[in-house]
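QA checklist item 7 of 12: single-chain prediction sanity check.
[x] sequence parsed
[x] length recorded as 217
[x] structure emitted
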Amino acid sequence: MTTPSSPHGPLAPSRDGPRRRTVRLPRRSLLLGAGLFPLVVASCGTRGSEPTSVTGDEDLLQEHGFEDADAHEIIDQLEALPVAERPQNLIASVTATSLQLQDDAERKAELPLPEDQFYLSVAPFVETTHECAFHSLTTCRGELRSREITVSVVDSSSGEIFEEGARATHDNGFLGLWLPRGITAELTCTLEDYTGTAPISTQAEDDLTCLTSLQLT
C-alpha cells in the first residue's frame, strides 16, 4: 500500500500544468500496512494521568525502547522518524481507540489512546496516493514528504477552530493531528497554490485514522 514520492517533486509542472489524478477512495476501506490484529482493548486513560495499561507482550515494548512511553508518545516518536530509521521488524497500527504493535516474532501489544484525544494522520497529495483506513506508522507512505502545509481544522457545527497554521509533513509524507474526540469537522490543507478539503470525524470507533484521499488541486 506504499507509494514512493515523485523523484521530481509533486509540483514539477508540465506544459499544461501539473498532472492531477482524482482518486475515489471508500471511506471504510480495511486496507492497512499489515492488517489489524484482534486484541482486548485496555481501559483508556488520559495522557498524564494514571500509568498506561498494556494488553499483550510488554517485552516487545522494552526491546523497542517504549517501556516507559504511552501511546501518545510512541505515535509521535514513530511518526517523526526518518523513513530509513523506522523499524523493519515492527508494525505499529493506530485505530480510533488504541495503538497496536506487532513484531516479526508475532508478539503483540496494545496501548489505549487518551480518552479525550483522537489521532488522525493525513497525507495530502497532488498526483499519487494509496487507500488506507487505519494508519500504519511504520509502512504508510505519502507523496508530499517534508513539505510545509498550511492546515486548518474547523468544527462543522460551531465553527470552532481546532487547528490552524503551517505544519511540516514528516519524511513518510504524513502529518499527525491530535484532535478532540466526538467532533465532525472540515480539514483544509494548502500547499502553495494548491488546496483541498475533506470532512473528518472523531466520533466512532471505526472512524479513519489514516486520511489519504485529500487531493490538492
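[x] summary fact logged: Residues 71-80 form the longest helix (10 residues).
[ ] second reviewer sign-off
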